[in-house]
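Notes taken during the Thursday session

The instructor put the following on the board and asked us to keep it in front of us for the whole hour. The protein is Ketosynthase family 3 (KS3) domain-containing protein. We were told not to look anything up and to reason only from what is written here. First, the residues (284 in total):
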Amino acid sequence: MIEYSANDRFREMPVYCCGLVHYHSLASSISSFFQLKGISKTLTTGCTAGIEAMEDAMMYLRAGRIHQAIVGSSDSSNNKVTIFGFGKIRGLPFNQSVEQAGSPFSKRSKGFILSEGAATLILETEEHARSRGAVIYGVVDEVCSNNDAESINGQDKHGENMKLAAEAVLQGRTPDYYNSQALGYASNDEIEAKLSADFFADKVPVTSIKGLIGHPFSTSGLAQIIATLLGFQHEFIPKTIRTDQYGYEQVPLILDTIHKATNEVLVTSHGYGGNNACVYLTRE
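Then, after some discussion, the predicted structure tokens were revealed:
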């Protein structure tokens, strides 16, 4: 039997508190609002969750189980636990100027800048999209995720499994550029630099939108995808801001917006705990 004291303030607990702390509440709310009675899932894999939700949706679409999916991601991470936790491992500019952090591909960066947000995409089969006259912004050609199996407190700093995920989606192709998750956090940026060197001999242009949006955890991968799709639509490659490229001079970083049509783009994402995810997007 559980005993309570007056100090527990049990009566002040709202009757809807279970919904407030339930991981699946956001997806449940969307299902309820739109009266969607089909498959509804929530993935909690950290920074790669948005892309891994896309990976799940793609499997259902390809299997013919569904014809359309709402894929979204969101994190409310601006709290004391997150800030103190990443401050403890020097992932955030704890007790330092924000100007010293959030600089993709710079060894002077003192960690990443925490942000919050949400991103949502509609995925569907081409037949279904064309039948309803939808605007098609791009095609998800391949998605792959895996785990480093190193530690719950980190990742493989050599990026071997990240490269396996990239290899699985590239399938020997060379993209017009790749939209990386470099965010000013040393271990992530080093892996991205290795990927550039090992796969493309530092000849394929690289960009990162993290200097612009910060790092919104699970939202980051879908935000990178949306930036890429907008680039397809308006014929530009987004530039990387807030960096001096110190220590990464060999990376062919895009520092000024390039106005040109692109057709194929690699998107990379990886997170604390060792999950890696890659997407290969095509214009049509």
